[in-house]
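The following record pairs a protein chain with its ligand, coenzyme A.
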Amino acid sequence: MAQTEPVKLRVLTMKDLDAVTEIDYGLLGTKRRGYWEARLESLETSGVPSLIAEVDRKVIGFILGRASGWEYGIPENVAWIDTLGVIKEYQKRGIARILFKEMFNMFKKVGVDTIYVFVNWKDWDLLQFFDKMGFKRGDMINLELKI
Ligand SMILES: CC(C)(COP(=O)(O)OP(=O)(O)OC[C@H]1O[C@@H](n2cnc3c(N)ncnc32)[C@H](O)[C@@H]1OP(=O)(O)O)[C@@H](O)C(=O)NCCC(=O)NCCS
C-alpha cells in the first residue's frame, strides 16, 4: 500500500485501545484487548508519553516506553522501550524509526542516558530494528526459573 500522506505522531491514549489491539493482533495473531487495556491504563505513570503514528488518520504504529524517576529505588537516568509495532503494510518505510527517534528525544529531555529493551532472541524483526537504532548487548543478564 502506498504511503500517500506524511506520518503524524501524537500521544497514545486509552482511545487508541482498539487500534493498538488490532495492530498487535495483526502482528502476533492473538487478540489481547484485556492485556492492552491494563497496559494503557498504566501509561500515566510512565514519565514520558507513549506515541501513535498515523497516516491519513489511520493508526499504523505505536511505541510504549517509560522513564525512571517514577519508581522507587530505580536510578533516574534509565528508561525502557516496552514494545513497538507497525502494521505489516507500512513496515520498512521508516515508521518505527520515526517513533523511536521521538521517544529517544523525549527520554533525553528528561535526563535519561541509558535505554533498555528486552527482546526475544528469536524475534528477528525487532533485533534487526534495534541493532539499526544503535543498541548493543548490555551488562544485564536474563535469569529465569521454571516452576
Ligand atoms: C520491528 C518493527 C517495529 C520495524 O518497523 P518498521 O517500521 O518496518 O522499521 P523501519 O522501517 O523504521 O526500519 C528502521 C531500520 O531498521 C531496519 N529493519 C526494520 N525491520 C527489519 C527487519 N525485519 N530486518 C532487517 N532490518 C530491519 C530497516 O531496514 C531500517 O534500517 P535502514 O534505515 O538502514 O534501512 C516491525 O517489523 C514490527 O512491528 N514488527 C513486529 C514487532 C512486534 O512483534 N511487536 C510486539 C507486538 S505489538
